[in-house]
Write a structure and sequence with these properties.
The complex is a heterodimer of chains A (271) and B (240). Chain A is 42% helix and 16% strand. By secondary structure, chain A is an alpha/beta fold. In chain A, α1 packs across α13. The longest helix of chain A has 14 residues. The radius of gyration of chain A is 18 Å and the shape is globular. Chain A starts with a strand and ends in a 6-residue tail after the last helix. Chain B is mainly beta. Chain B folds into 2 domains: 70 residues, ACT domain (Alpha-Beta Plaits, 2-Layer Sandwich), CATH 3.30.70.260; 105 residues, Pectate Lyase C-like (3 Solenoid), CATH 2.160.20. In chain B, 11% of the residues lie in helices and 30% in strands. In chain B, a hairpin with a 2-residue loop joins β15 and β16. Chain B is globular, with a radius of gyration of 19 Å. Classes of the chains: A alpha/beta (271), B mainly beta (240). Chains A and B meet through α7 of A and loops of B.
């Protein structure tokens, strides 16, 4: 099936890189071959989250510019041998990416891997538009906050106009992934609830990742959360999302508010 | 944004007409600027990236006066692309060019609360009678998108996102939630209306008269509404 997925959002800090790593690891754990590609040239992070920062020799820019061959730049994960990383360059900027070069790299990756997952930089400029340019599927990572949702909406507009599929008159398949969902805050009305987000973005939901310390801890130790803490709610949510990407029908679990139950027991009402 | 390109004879030149917002200052300029400031306060960012034509027909300004006024507007982030109704002798190449063939449209009568604003399609776009007079949009309008349809009505089946805008020569119908801006009757049609299933609009405008989200009370926010113009006042009322 050889799918190219872009993980994008518009806004920064919503969890694109974490999501790329976690979904990549979850898909690779099923035995399919996966490459995660860092498009955040100049501000690379995916190597850190994947724990491969000490093994980077060549990067995406080298391959785009023809300085290195693709197999030289790919870093195979030490934990899952079906998972690879194509890191970004930290010393260059997004202008070093050319459309032709990116097209060539994506085409070659498509022949080598079942899944190509592109981690988009924030923003709507060159890096982000080239990351989405050749995608079949987009995962729009959104926090349940007004600013994040509006930026996601903007990105969806770009996916419908600036991608190669859109220009051919076809459609990029699009999914919403809600991250950093905090049920307690949602219950208090301090963040948008799931239905508000889906109502505004009017796209299907791929998963809901609860706000959790496990996610932060996993990022800091350089292991995707699905590997670092496989029993955590966040890891389960990412595995479910990966299964949905593979076309499986998995019931959606809305993270519940543990305190809410206590509140109910004691007859208190959330403000 | 109608365009008429002379494709058969030449590929090097084409003629396009654009919609520009026309500001027509009135004497005394100081009061007019104060009025403008008041207005900008409630509609911040309205002029951002919009081409504006300055109509000096109602004021007599010499070159220093014109320069001063342009400076004042530029401080307010209003970019003037052309000047109308000024004495050509007062303009030199460092000032925006004189526009002469702006097609007049109905002028808002004695605008009290809103700055006068009318659009003037710039030179020479022949009106084509066989063009469709309505536009149907079947998908949601996303943040950052702008739909311009000066020829008639716009109907949107999905929602109109915060940070997007619809500009229509006729009426605007939104069957989803309207969260962005809707500007109807921009060619001077005061009978144009705006309808939506759920009103969360940032701004509603008909023929240059408008109101912003600050004005919505509970009766019209989040409800199905229609908006129309009555004696120079923009009315908004629930549909049911």
């Amino acid at each position: 099936m050889n799918k190219v997925i872009v993980v994008t959002s518009g806004k920064g800090g919503v969890g694109k890189t974490t999501t790329t790593a976690a979904l990549g690891a979850a898909l690779a754990a099923t035995g399919q071959s996966v490459v995660v590609v860092d498009f955040d040239v100049g501000l690379r992070n995916l190597d850190l989250v994947m724990g491969a920062e000490r093994r980077v020799v060549y990067d995406l820019i080298n391959v785009v510019q023809g300085v290195a061959k693709l197999p030289q730049a790919l870093i195979r994960d030490k934990r899952i041998d079906t998972l690879s990383l194509l890191p970004a360059s930290q010393t260059r900027d997004k202008d070093a990416l050319t459309e032709d070069g990116v097209a060539r790299v994506i085409k070659e990756l498509r022949t080598k891997f079942d899944w190509v997952i592109c981690d988009s930089p924030a923003g709507i400029e060159r890096g982000a538009t080239l990351a989405m340019r050749f995608a079949d599927t987009a995962i729009i990572v959104t926090n349940p906050e007004v600013s994040s949702v509006r930026d996601s909406d903007r990105i969806i507009g770009l996916l419908d106009s600036k991608t190669e599929l859109a220009e051919k008159g076809e459609r990029v398949e699009k999914h919403i992934l809600i991250t950093r969902y905090d049920p307690a805050r949602a219950a208090r009305g301090e963040m948008l609830n799931i239905n508000d987000v889906l109502d505004i973005l009017s796209l299907p939901l791929l998963g809901i990742i609860p706000e959790s310390e496990e996610v932060l801890r996993a990022s800091n130790v350089g292991t995707p959360v699905t590997l670092n803490d496989p029993k955590s709610a966040a890891a389960q949510a990412y595995r479910d999302a990966a299964a949905r990407l593979r076309g499986q029908d998995v019931p959606m679990i809305v993270p519940a508010d543990r305190k809410g139950l206590l509140d109910k027991l004691f007859g208190r009402r959330a403000a | 944004m109608t365009s008429a390109s002379d494709a058969n004879n030449s590929i090097r030149f084409c003629i396009r007409s654009y919609i520009a917002f026309v500001l027509a200052p009135q004497a005394p300029i100081i009061d007019w600027l104060a009025q403008l400031d008041n207005w900008i306060k409630t509609s911040a960012g309205f002029f951002a990236d919009r081409p504006v034509v300055l109509d000096l027909g109602a004021v007599k300004l010499g070159q220093p006066g014109i320069r001063h006024l342009l400076g004042q507007l530029s401080e307010r982030n209003i970019r003037v692309v052309g000047i109308e109704g000024a004495d050509p002798a007062q303009l030199d190449p460092s000032l925006p060019p004189l526009l002469t063939s702006g097609r007049p449209s109905e002028r808002p009568q004695a605008a009290e609360t809103t700055a006068p604003k009318r659009e003037a399609p710039a030179p020479a776009a022949p009106v084509q009678t066989d063009e469709p007079t309505s536009l149907l949009i079947e998908c949601p309008v996303r943040s950052g998108q702008a739909i311009y349809f000066p020829n008639g009505d716009v109907t949107v089946l999905g929602s109109v996102a915060s940070g997007s805008e619809i500009v229509a020569g006729g009426s605007i119908h939104v069957y989803g939630t309207l969260r962005g801006r809707a500007m109807a009757g921009t060619k001077g049609d005061g009978r144009a209306r705006i309808f939506c299933r759920k009103n969360e609009a940032e701004l509603l405008a008909i023929n240059g008269y408008y109101r912003t989200a600050e004005d919505w009370d509970d009766a019209i926010r989040s409800h199905a509404i229609q908006s129309w113009l009555e004696n120079g006042v923009l009315k908004v009322a629930p549909l049911d």
